[in-house]
Design a protein that fits this description.
Number of helices: 6
Distance between the termini: 93 Å
Strand content: under 5%
Structural class: mainly alpha
Order of helices and strands: HHHHHH
Low-confidence stretches: none
Length: 118
């Protein structure tokens, strides 16, 4: 038992001597975390768009492979990524599929009101 405690204490002394004491912990601002999360989400949105089959077919027609497109997306600056990610939702093929549901909802509600009114 004495040998084990001596070995552990020697290991602790050795690790304290070899470890630098210059490391410090600090607070991370919420703004930094939110910016990083938004940046990562934008980059993922662009990579997901590039990996779609219809987009890959268009790239192949232009002479660009899917791996080259992904490499080019990874090489883009964050401003370029944000600009492209902002335009993806406005494209017909990349738009949200729920955009037409409110029209169908209005028609259904109008039909129910018309049915009960008559």
């Amino acid at each position: 038992m004495k040998l084990l405690s001596k070995l552990i204490s020697q290991m602790l002394i050795l690790s304290m001597v070899l470890m630098p004491f210059s490391t410090q912990a600090g607070m991370i601002a919420t703004d930094n975390v939110a910016v990083n999360a938004t940046a990562e989400a934008s980059r993922d949105k662009v990579l997901e768009f590039v990996s779609r089959t219809d987009v890959q077919k268009q790239f192949e027609a232009l002479g660009l492979t899917a791996t080259n497109a992904a490499e080019r997306v990874n090489a883009m600056t964050q401003d370029e990524i944000n600009r492209i990610a902002g335009k993806i939702d406005s494209l017909p093929a990349g738009a949200s599929s729920s955009s037409g549901w409110w029209i169908a909802g209005v028609i259904v509600v109008a039909a129910i009101i018309w049915y009960y009114w008559r």
